[in-house]
Design a protein that fits this description.
5-stranded antiparallel beta sheet; 18 helices; alpha+beta; 49% helix; elongated
Length: 540
């Protein structure tokens, strides 16, 4: 008894030695351990809620730059942010004289005064590439008594200038003119109130307006159009600057080679607010009193004024068009890859192995009927069936449902190979002896036949995992995957939907594709290393 146990221990040790003796086994095992540890870390650190936030939360556009490439692939541009807290404030100053004769009437005949406040900040930009985006938030608060009334009509007497002054002296305006404020209240010129979900809690914040893309009919369009014409005249391109994007006008210039590049230097962010108000509401001994203006609700001031230059790159993997970090998506996809790959593969493979063993044991009509069922299942097309089900239910297939459908359609894969092995094993002397002594069918199948097939079943299962992950990626790429699961297939779907190839967003499809390749290669290498174990004749 002692010698048999010792022999068994040596055999188990030799199996591990055989697995790790080959280069494919060493690399495959190392990759498996690294990916498994990363998957465990992601689940422990973020949990299910954190994983689903990657696809369901709207917080990313506030936290990270949009469509930013990896920093190692581009010249890194420093981010900058200028807000009210960083600005130098001049005023408020009250004046009884203005240049416009019509506006002077408000002062002379309606007991009014003109109040102006100037907010000014600056930032330096030094990089060879443009930032990934520039964003602006501008919200003005107007008190109910901060408007001069002419008889029964309210006039638009809030005058606003908001612009960025470039290092070459050109001004790019965001607003220039009268502000139609109505009676009073808050005016959202740029930016909006948004909510994000962080750790299961809702957080309200002001989301800046992206200036990277100028949409037709937007408020910024008229100002950027005027600024582009001014820039073209200044640089000597009256027929237009080739390659200039509207959102680049804030920083664009042309180098000696005729290429559009960012203008380096100091940029000034300026906001001027002027308004006509009843002097009794704001003047104390002939001087503007901000406390009195607040007390009488006769003020006009910015609630939010933020100009942000977002970095032109992010980390090692970059971000996607929804500002989500690609690296985080790769990590979040690992647990789903393991769960889906292992659950589908091992359940379907062992169902097929048991089924094939039984079909090989029964050589009569039972076995023939069982194999015809396998032929029917193997002939069913996987992707068309899932697409048809998605259309029928008018919704994407969730990951648990997808796993169940894969098991139903994949279990027949190993049956033919297992049955051929079972046919040979059923003719062995020990199986015939078991029949002769009256052993039950269950005992023969599970005690004498399946243990001989088990090593091959493990090898088949390991080699089948890549097929499951690729099938899920294919389904997601077509738009029928689980919308709540941050799988690598969903990342590839986004890259396809936004035209990443034509847009030059190569990192959107490169890294998810590499993740699929590495994950699949891990199990292909392990399957290759298992050959000497399941087929000892291959060992030299």
């Amino acid at each position: 008894m002692f010698k048999r146990k010792k022999k068994t221990g040596k055999k188990q040790l030799s199996n591990w030695s055989l697995l790790l003796r080959t280069w494919s086994g060493k690399i495959g095992m190392a990759l498996l351990i690294i990916q498994l540890l990363l998957a465990i870390y992601v689940v422990a650190a973020y949990g299910e809620t954190g994983l689903k936030e990657y696809t369901q939360s709207n917080k990313w556009s506030y936290l990270y730059p949009q469509s930013a490439p990896p920093c190692w692939a581009t010249d890194k541009a420093p981010p900058a942010k200028v807000s009210l807290e960083d600005m130098q404030i001049t005023g408020p100053e009250a004046s009884f004289q203005v240049a416009d004769p019509k506006q002077q009437l408000l002062i002379d005949y309606f007991n009014a005064v003109y109040v102006e406040t100037v907010y000014e900040g600056s930032f330096n930009y030094k990089a060879e590439g443009f930032p990934s985006d520039t964003a602006l938030a501008l919200i003005i608060s107007v008190g109910k008594n901060a408007i001069v009334k002419l008889q029964t009509t309210t006039t638009d007497i809030v005058i606003l200038e908001a612009y960025v002054e470039r290092p070459d002296g050109l001004k790019v305006y965001f607003y220039d003119g009268k502000l139609p404020v109505g009676e009073s209240g808050t005016v959202f010129l740029y930016g909006q109130v948004a909510n994000i979900t962080e750790g299961g809690e809702n957080i309200t914040f002001i989301k800046p307006y992206s200036l990277n893309k100028v949409y037709q009919g937007a408020l910024i369009e008229q100002y950027f159009t005027s600024s582009i014409k001014q820039l073209e005249e200044y640089l000597g391109y009256p027929e237009g600057i080739p390659g200039l994007q509207p959102g680049q006008v804030i920083m664009a210039t042309v180098n000696e080679q005729g290429q559009v590049v960012p203008l380096n230097g100091e940029y000034k962010v300026v906001l001027k607010i002027g308004y006509f108000v009843d002097r009794d509401f704001v003047l104390n001994n002939g001087q503007f009193d901000p406390n009195l203006a607040k007390q009488n609700d006769a003020y006009v001031e910015p609630t939010v004024y933020v100009f942000e230059v977002k970095p032109n790159c992010y980390g090692f993997f970059g971000t996607d068009t929804k500002s989500r970090p690609i690296g985080l998506g790769l990590l979040f996809g690992l647990p789903y890859a393991f769960i889906l790959g292992f659950s589908v593969t091992f359940i379907s493979t062992f169902i097929g192995a048991f089924y094939g063993t039984a079909a090989g044991y029964w050589k009569d009509i039972k076995g023939e009927i069982m194999m015809r069922v396998v032929d029917i299942v193997n002939s069913l097309p996987f992707l068309p069936i899932l697409i048809a089900l998605s259309v029928a239910f008018r919704s994407a297939i969730t990951l648990p449902v997808l796993a169940g459908l894969m098991i139903i359609l994949f279990w027949a894969g190993p049956v033919i190979v297992v049955r051929s092995m079972a046919l040979q094993i059923s003719e062995q002397i020990y199986v015939e002896a078991a029949r002769a002594v009256g052993a039950s069918t269950r005992r023969i199948l599970f005690k004498h036949m399946f243990p001989q097939i088990f090593p091959y079943t493990m090898a088949i299962a390991v080699l089948s995992i890549p097929g499951v992950i690729v099938a899920e990626a294919s389904l997601s790429l077509l738009g029928f995957g689980d919308p709540a699961a941050p799988t690598w297939g969903k990342m590839l779907q986004l890259a396809y939907d936004v035209g990443a190839v034509n847009a030059g967003y190569w990192w959107l499809y490169l890294f998810p594709g590499l993740a699929l390749v590495i994950f699949s290669a891990t199990f292909l290498l392990l399957g290759r290393a298992l050959e000497p174990i399941v087929a000892p004749k291959l060992v030299k």
